[in-house]
Amino acid sequence: MSDYIEDGKGNVDLHIHTKYSDGALTVDQVLDIAESKKLSVISITDHDTLGAYPYVIEEGRKRGIEVITGTELSCEMNGKDIHILGYFMDPNNEELKSALEEMRYARYHRAEKMVQNLNRQGIDLRFETVLRFAADGAIGRPHIASALLHEELVYSFREAFERYLGYDSPAYVEKLQMTPGEVFRLIKNAGGVPILAHPGVTKVDELIPELVREGLAGLEVYHSDHSSTIRRHYAGICRKHRLLFTGGSDFHCLTHRPNQIEIGDMDIRYSLIEGLKAHYKDFLPKESVA
Question: Is 7 helix (H, G, I), strand (E, B) or coil?
Answer without folding.
Answer: coil
